[in-house]
Design a protein that fits this description.
alpha/beta; eight-stranded mixed β-sheet; globular; N-utilizing Substance Protein B Homolog, Chain A; single chain; 3 domains; Alpha-Beta Plaits
């Protein structure tokens, strides 16, 4: 198991140095080609768990250290081991012994006797003093919720009745939700297929089935044939709310990785353009379309520019804008520690360029669905309000919640979805051009 600790520690260390976990974890795994599938799976769980509760773990470690560690690798191994002691079911003394072994396997100077002795002493001190340490952290919000203080403060201000539930739900393991392709099979028939395969599920509404336990995608019946896709229930609202009429010309701006693109096409759209500024991410859009056996015009271009546009207006535009991703942190646990408060304003500025640029491409009477996976108001209704003030030909339409299948699974849906057990955090605003 010490090898899993080493891999996880390497990934965590890279994230704390500013690298995205989706890049850091594969790089760390590649450094240990002889790791077994079990060790690789454990390393992934330890990486995500450590970063999910990093605020709490780091607060404990600060109390246990007399001075900051000079070796980041030793520091990261201690973080992973403390995560195990706080949240894992592994035997405590086994975790300590494995951490000592993990640090001894590091290249010098970390492998010196002082490092092994220090790791052993700190972890055993934690076990002896855990109750007292916890008492001293009781009033520390960063330790309690494992978010940066600026993030906590912002949610307190914007969601006085829900800030704690948003934080706590963001620290839970995300549900695995499927989107059934009704072009290929009825939702009820597919749920019965899952049951026959021994996979328990529940219907959330629309095309969404949430699994009781996560399943590897290769074991999901019909996945490779486009019968079903993995997509959060909150994200599945986009294609429905866009309200695409027959034969409409549709633009899916910022389309990668293509989940919403595929859903729009599944609902009957026949003329869709998928746009994204990153050509490498467009490969994922193409891959998704191929799996679903669907077609769209895929274009590389910047949603804040118009050099890619042929000048023909769109009847519907999905503007799934770049954002802080503050509503999906349970899936991307590194975001909490990579984001800085100043990043919010940066994303707001980017969104403020994209929205008016896409608006000029919308036909009169057409609709634009503004979407973000953020819970911060500046990126959501605040952004929309500023746009409406500057564009007299735009009006925001109210959503008919009763028309949304499974609306009882949505928490006070008025455009803003806050994270719950059923879905991630998203924002939706439907704008019509007069």
């Amino acid at each position: 198991m010490y090898l899993s600790q080493q891999i996880a520690a390497q990934a965590v260390n890279q994230v704390l140095s500013g690298r995205n976990l989706t890049l850091a974890l594969p790089a760390a795994l590649a450094s240990y080609p002889n790791a077994t599938p079990q060790q690789r799976g454990a390393a992934q769980d330890l990486s995500y768990g450590t970063l999910r509760f990093y605020g709490e773990i780091d607060a404990y470690l600060i109390q246990l250290l007399e001075k900051p560690l000079s070796d980041d690798r030793v520091h990261a191994i201690l973080l992973v081991a403390l995560y195990q002691l706080l949240h894992d079911k592994a035997d405590a003394f086994t975790v300590v012994n494995q951490a000592v072994q993990a640090v001894s396997m590091l290249r010098k100077p970390a492998a010196k006797a002082w490092a092994k002795g220090l790791v052993n002493a700190i972890l055993r001190n934690f076990l002896r003093q855990q109750t007292a340490l916890a008492d001293r952290l009781a009033n520390k919000e960063v330790a309690t919720y494992s978010y940066p203080q600026w993030w906590i403060n912002k949610l307190k201000l914007q969601y006085p009745a829900h800030w704690q539930s948003i934080l706590l739900n963001g620290n839970q393991h995300p549900p695995m939700t499927l989107r059934v392709n009704r072009q290929k099979i009825k939702v009820t028939d597919y749920q019965q297929l899952l049951t026959r395969q021994g996979i328990e599920s529940a219907c959330l509404g629309g095309q969404a089935l949430v699994l009781s336990k996560p399943v590897a995608v290769e074991k999901i019946p019909g996945f490779s044939d486009g019968v079903v896709s993995v997509q959060d229930y909150g994200a599945q609202l986009a294609a429905v709310l866009l309200d695409v009429p027959e034969h409409a010309r549709v633009l899916d701006a910022c389309s990668a990785p293509g989940g919403k693109t595929g859903h729009i096409l599944e609902l009957g759209c026949t003329n869709l353009t998928a746009l994204d500024s990153d050509p490498s991410r467009l490969l994922r859009v193409q891959s998704n379309l191929s799996r679903l056996q669907l077609h769209a015009q895929v274009i590389s271009g910047d949603a804040a520019a118009s050099d890619w546009w042929d000048g023909v207006s769109f009847d519907r535009i999905l503007a799934d804008v770049p954002c802080t991703a503050s509503g999906i942190v349970r899936r991307h646990v590194d975001i909490k520690w990579l984001r800085r408060e100043a990043d919010v304003a940066s994303f707001v500025a980017q969104q403020a360029k994209i929205l008016p640029n896409l608006w000029q491409m919308l036909a009169k009477g057409g609709k634009l669905l503004y979407v973000s996976c953020s819970v911060f108001n500046e990126e959501n209704q605040g952004q929309v309000d500023k746009f409406l003030q500057n564009n007299a030909d735009a009006r925001q339409l109210a959503f008919d919640v009763s028309a949304i299948a499974g609306a009882d699974n949505l928490t006070q849906f008025n455009g803003q979805l806050i994270p719950t057990a059923a879905h991630d955090g998203f924002f939706y605003a439907l704008l019509q051009k007069n």
